[in-house]
Design goal:
Layout lengths: L3 H27 L10 H9 L3 H42 L3 H19 L31
Length: 147
């Protein structure tokens, strides 16, 4: 059993650690070593650069416009990546025997279709890898048409 002096020492060390941590974090925020969480770049620019309201509005417009362009590029990239992957899957499937194609369709093509949202049949059980015979495709896998 710890003695009373050990308990007091532990309590003193704990409280001291909390106070030192509070002081250090306060200084870090004050001298901008740490940034305030959740603060937008427009707010930071407005404060640090002392932007006029007109400048602040224009900065916001520019950043929104660039965010939109970046998102468009991301979507184009995803679409192109899916097309390349589907072409590769089609080439792999073409070289397989009919029996291998059935397994391929069930184990490789279908999970990808469910993941990518192509040919969505309403069931979204992405984690289920034990597909039954009813899940086999009656028709061969085809590359989805460009959107």
């Amino acid at each position: 059993m710890p003695t009373r002096s050990n308990l007091w020492l532990g309590l003193l060390v704990g409280v001291s650690g909390l106070l030192i941590g509070f002081a250090v974090s306060t200084l870090a925020y004050r001298y901008r070593v740490l940034r305030v969480p959740g603060q937008s770049i427009v707010e930071r620019m407005s404060r640090d650069l002392q932007l006029t309201p007109a400048q602040r509005d224009r900065v916001g417009d520019i950043l929104r416009e660039s965010r939109f362009k970046v998102r468009e590029q991301q979507l184009d990239y995803q679409k192109h990546r899916h097309q390349i992957f589907w072409q590769a899957l089609s080439q792999v499937r073409e070289m397989l025997t009919p029996e291998q194609q059935k397994i391929f369709d069930r184990e490789f093509a279908r999970p990808w279709m469910m993941h990518s949202g192509e040919h969505d049949h309403g069931d979204h059980d992405h984690g289920d890898r034990d597909h039954g015979p009813a899940d086999d495709f009656a028709e061969p896998m085809q590359t989805p048409p460009p959107k």
